[in-house]
Design a protein that fits this description.
GPCR_Rhodpsn; membrane; globular; receptor; mainly alpha; G-protein coupled receptor
Length: 281
């Protein structure tokens, strides 16, 4: 970021692009980010490894039906693994690794909503357009779609590292567009769910499938809204509030996004029946 920051006297210091300088000026920001990073490593790392292990060791049909969940867990795992190095860089080493590490930081802004959107569209097609869903059900199509998402993610992260704030508003529009698609899928499945069935004793299988799809899409939508809307609002406040207030607000929004990232893997583990031994029935 090529903007000046305020020092403790209220005067303007030289422009800085280093998070180390920012957090050294304001301790509250340091603790917000430290708490978020540590929580992500201690909680996000084991549950995403668990999700990956369950999907990979499952049957081929399980792998095909959860391919986007698998990729999302892999992305979250990559993000979690870079956090210890980011902690060392920010709080101990004070080195010049900020730019390379920021590439991994942007993974959650590009890859996470894209894979969430893929999950929603997949469930939408399964309920509203079953013939299209069956046509593209083979694993090769989903692998190709996942590869495309990874390419977009890496391209977006690279561009954001190089251009930084020039892409901030474009990223906000990108996330809003994905949220619109997810909202459409959620409302369409809800409408299908509320449509009259064949009777109380008939059509219960399709009805349960619709309920399951609606639950999955709703969880994904609420999780994505809670993750990114506060960050988008904070980004638009960048030039409207003081630097100290902005980084405090942004750090708080980032912490919210960290805890929201636990929802999707926990929801998968709940659907797989793996949380009953921990939480009971």
């Amino acid at each position: 970021m090529n903007r000046s920051t305020e020092n403790e006297n209220g005067t303007i210091s030289q422009p800085t692009t280093d998070w180390v300088n920012i957090i050294s000026l304001w301790p509250e920001v340091t603790w917000i980010y430290f708490f978020a990073f540590v929580s992500n490593v201690l909680v996000g790392l084991p549950i995403n490894v668990w999700v990956l292990w369950l999907i990979v060791r499952g049957l081929e049909v399980v792998l095909a039906s959860e391919i986007f969940t698998l990729n999302l867990a892999a992305l979250e795992l990559i993000y979690c693994l870079h956090l210890p190095l980011a902690l060392l860089n920010n709080f101990v080493l004070n080195s010049n690794l900020s730019k390379p590490l920021s590439f991994f930081q942007e993974l959650i802004y590009f890859g996470r909503p894209l894979f969430q959107c893929c999950i929603c569209v997949e469930r939408y097609l399964a309920v509203l357009h079953p013939l299209t869903f069956l046509r593209y059900r083979p694993l090769r199509y989903r692998v190709g779609c996942s590869a495309l998402v990874w390419m977009i993610t890496f391209g977006g992260c690279s561009a954001f590292v190089l251009l930084q704030l020039l892409l901030s508003y474009a990223l906000a529009v990108f996330i809003i567009l994905l949220l619109s698609v997810m909202s459409f899928c959620c409302l369409a499945v809800l409408r299908a769910l509320r449509s009259p069935g064949l009777g109380k004793g008939e059509g219960q299988g399709p009805h349960l499938a619709k309920k399951r799809a609606f639950r999955i899409i709703t969880v994904s939508l609420v999780f994505t809204l809670a993750t990114y809307l506060p960050l988008i609002v904070a980004a638009f406040l960048y030039s409207e509030i003081s630097y100290r207030s902005f980084y405090t607000v942004y750090g708080t929004c980032y912490s919210i996004s960290v805890f929201c990232s636990f929802v999707q893997p926990l929801h998968f583990l709940s659907r797989a029946g793996k949380l009953q031994c921990i939480m009971g029935h």
